[in-house]
Amino acid sequence: MTWDDMQQLMQPATLETLQMVGVATVVTVLIGLPLGLLLVLTDKGGALQNVVVNRVLGVIVNVGRSLPFIILMVALQTFTRGVVGTTLGWQAATVPLAIGAIPFFARLVETSVREVDGGLLEAVHAMGGSTWTTVRKVLLPESLPALVSSVTTTVIALIGFSAMAGTVGGGGLGTLAVNYGYQRFETGFMWVIIAELVVIVMIIQAIGDFFVRRLNNRGHSGGTVRLRRRRSAVSTPEAVSTPAEELTPAS
Amino acid sequence: MITTKDLTKVYRSRGREVTALAGVDLHVREGEVYGVVGTSGAGKSTLIRCVNMLERPSSGSVTVDGIELTALSGQEHRAGRDLRAARRRIGMVFQHFNLLSSRTVQENVELPLEIIGLDRTQRRRKAAELLDLVGLADKARSYPSQLSGGQKQRVGIARALAGDPKVLLSDEATSALDPETTRSILGLLRDLNRQLGLTVLLITHEMDVIKSVCDSAALMRGGKVVEAGALTDLLARPDSVLARELFPLGEFGAGHPGHTVLEITFQGDTSAQPFVSQLARTYQIDINILGAAVETIAGRLVGRMRVELPGSHQDNVVPIGFLREQGLQVDVLNEAGLKHAGLNEPNGVVA
Q: Mean per-residue pLDDT for A79-96?
């Protein structure tokens, strides 16, 4: 198998992988974020304290997280067919991918949101803010760096899952690795695919880290950045304006 | 301005009951700075949180600016519409500032204005005014992490004033600050109280805070107010524990047997009189000064002096009468020199 042959196979497969991971990520965030917030808000001492809802959500999330992905994929086939009309290809793979990742992401959201200082919520309540105000003005913005890093972790987990989807005809790089690398003993090709997956993961991690660092620059963490900013504040006004503009997040 | 009636708060956890407030009656007049002092666990924090319903009292009533908050529905973080509206008229500052780290100083001050529903330009203008008022106009674009503790508390105060409140609640606002910063923050509170006619209810464990800014004070112990009133009145009361704590003369000078020990308290105008020399000249007696202190409390000069006169109490009835005629408050100490319970109490307030 030549490099050209490999590339011809890999290009569409890479696109498929990115598509299924992309769509699954969007769905996961859309459902997992409110779910994670609800886990915090309905918990004891939360603004929407409700033991029953909290327990039920907790059980759903735990069951979702403990099911092996490969079993989830098979078990969901009927549901998948109902949603996208097929059980093959990358479109079909997005359904179990999202459903597998939602509970995972929801737990990460829960942990991130819990880190927010309760005093801030109290301050907003004392100002006459509602629960929705605390979510919008405090919980989400204050936990944003942690949330971004949760998304990064989730995307990377999804890439791993998507390769597994390849074993049951999910398309993408996973299918390629199984069909050629495993079944046709093209070990070399398999290594190339693995290398590509590693590169994709590294790029995504780097992008995630970049955003987290940017967000942290405005806030409490990031000691080195703070030192740099402090020093710049002492220097001339012209010198201050440049780094300050760079570091100020677009609001 | 703030009135609480028979306020109680009982916490229940795992079948056990803890009484944090046991029938607190508090009356804060409009335009005054009122301090509640007590050791930790005395219930003062619960009290201030009950005033704006961050904690719903178990029983009793709270009225702020004519609105009975206890009658409004909702509590803690599930406040009803009316309670939320009422809270917008009550500012609150916190020990740990509670500023959002994701927002700049200006954006932090704008937060309550966003909740009120002002538009962007109005918010900008108001925030700029407030930051100017607390002396932080140049820090508008900084983030809280770049500020010192005192600056953070100034932002907290600016934020608390955003809704033009008539009442400011201060929950140990200076307890995390060093003495000098504490002084400047207290000075700011005092200025705001005078300039804006703001009524301030503050809780603290430091007597110095009471001494430097408060007009009135209440002492809390075990969930109860054991003593309350205007500082000038309290200082005139011989048995006042608070006055003792505000003005400790210490253990010194119990006096000699066969002598009479007096404690003379003078406030305001009377402090200008040379009463000791007058006394000595008029009655030809030798006066031994055992201890004295002069301080500014609630903006007034107040002094307390412990003196010893020869002879028994009976021998000195006339000179004591003379002193009282001068408008001085005179207390006769007994032989042990310790008339007042407050003096020796080991669990007294931290000074």
A: 89
Residues within 8 A of A (CB atoms), B 126-145 only? 141, 143-145
> A146 is in which domain, residue-wise?
3-175
- Identify the H or E element spanning A61: helix A51-66
Distance CA B231, CA B161 (A): 26
Question: How many residues appear in chain B?
Answer: 351
User: Are A127 and B163 inside 8 Å of each other by CB?
Assistant: yes
Strand, coil or helix: B209: helix
- pLDDT tens digits, B82-123: 888 899 999 999 999 999 999 999 999 999 999 999 999 999
Confidence of residue B324 (pLDDT cuts 50, 70, 90): confident
ipTM exceeding 0.90, yes/no:
no
Ramachandran bin of A121, using left for φ above 0, alpha for ψ from -120 to 50, beta for the remaining angles: alpha
> What's the rounded Cα separation, in Å, for the pair B56 and B8?
10
Tokens 């600050």 belong to which residue?
Answer: B177
Paired tokens of A79: 């549901």
User: Does B263 lie in the same domain as B114?
Assistant: no
The C-alpha of A25 sits at a distance from chain B's nearest C-alpha, in angstroms, of: 25
d(CA B278, CA A151): 83
Domain count, chain B: 2
Which residues partner with B288 through β-bridges?
B308
pLDDT at residue B254, rounded to an integer: 59
Tens of pLDDT, residue by residue over A22-63, are 999 999 999 999 999 999 999 988 888 889 999 999 999 999
Question: Which chain B residues are closer than 8 Å to A220 by Cβ?
Answer: 101, 144-145
Query: Pick from B236, B271, B294: which residue ends a domain?
Result: B236
Say if the Cβ atoms of A125 and B79 lie within 8 Å.
yes
| The two structure tokens encoding residue B209 | 């805070």
Q: How many domains does chain A have?
A: 1
Q: Quick one: B146 and B288 in the same domain?
A: no
Pairing state between β B33-37 and B216-221: parallel
What is the span of the domain harbouring residue B289?
Answer: 250-344
Dihedral angle of Cα A68, A70, A72, A74, to the nearest 10 degrees: -150
The SS3 assignment for B26 reads strand
pLDDT tens per residue, range A206-231: 999 999 999 887 754 444 344 444 44
**DSSP calls for A95-154:** HHHHHHHHHHHHHHHHHHHHTS-HHHHHHHHHTT--HHHIIIIIIHHHHHHHHHHHHHHH
Tell me whether residue A196 is in a domain.
no
What CATH code is carried by the domain that includes residue B155?
3.40.50.300
Q: Are residues B158 and B10 in the same domain?
A: yes
CB pairs under 8 A between A and B: 92
Of A121, A133, A219, the CB nearest to B102: A219
Look at B90 and A126 and tell me if their CB atoms are within 8 Å: yes
What CATH code is carried by the domain that includes residue A30?
1.10.3720.10
